[in-house]
Amino acid sequence: MIDPAAMTASPFPEQALPDWRRAVLKVGSSLLAADGGGLSPRHALGLAQFVSANVLAGREVVIVSSGAVAAGRAILPRVEAAGAAMAARQALAALGQAQLIGLWQRFFERPVAQVLLTHDDLRNRRRYLNARATLNELLRLGALPVVNENDTVSVDELKLGDNDNLAATVAALVDADVLFIATDIDGLYSADPRRDASAQPIPQVQELTADVLAMAGGSGSSAGTGGMRTKLEAASKAARLGIETILFNGRNGDVVRALAQGRLHGTRLHASQSREAARKYWLRHAPVEPGVIWIDDGAVQAMRGKGASLLPGGITGADGEFRRGDMVEIRCRPGAGGGEASVARGVTQYAASDIRRIAGRHSRDIEAALGYNYGGNVVHRDDLVLV
Questions:
Q1: Does the annotation place 29 within a ligand binding site?
Q2: 10 is in an annotated binding site
Q3: What is the 3-state secondary structure (H, E, C) of 311-345?
């Protein structure tokens, strides 16, 4: 049965969604918390149907979901909602994670995978690459990743609003085209509509200026602490990476159903440039580590002519002591590739010491040579730029 409140018309005019192939959907605690404690499927069902409709259409979705602390509080209600000790809130998060994943799994026939991240995981380049490889593999296998901050080991004060910024980082991590943020209001207004009756809806934002950020209000519910400002900060981070952000009311059933049909009643925050252009710019200008990966003429031709990844078979050696996840220059020996020494730069999946051991080998022999492997590419084509 549809909640009559969910049939309320949106004050935001209809507009088309941007084309997308892969997206991150961020769902906050206010959409999952039950009035009496714990989690409720009331709004999650419609969002799950949105995900399913797009997966059936051949798209990919990663969910970033809050709600673990709210779920844990239903199991141990004696822990106070406000001012709880850090250890107690971490215990609630640990108790609630299983409940949160169980809530999402009930809506999908495909397997749901829990992925817990911390900001340290995303700042450390090697762990960042591990997380990206795991998420990409889960999507390839047809699973639905559900990401949450690993609050049980976080050393910072728990702020569920941080999941807005986490969602923007995950969108960059998986090379998403768009970031959907489901919230409990209709979109961005010129002022907080709950306090200012004259607040006007803002359907589109071309650039996130200081004036736009000033429109953000505070938190709207007791379940989460993320207000509109954290959502705009996340949108700003995504925009710099070429990712558009969509703000919409996850409590409005009509809005969510229209979203599954490519129609938005909410706010569209445009990216400053294309996703590809933003990534290529970063690859071209990020500082490189000391060291070089040396390649042969065949690898030069494959990378330049076919846009191929760099495989170990085309590598002749490596200088320096760079590590997995470092930005490294890729060169060919004098006389190869038309005599040009510098060919490309990219993020390496293997350390210099590993590359020296697998140089010239077939990708299938990597594990036999090293005892482990991070995939058949030394530098994936999405992680390199020709120079």
A1: no
A2: no
A3: CHHHEEEEECCCCCCCEEEEEECCCCHHHCCEEEE
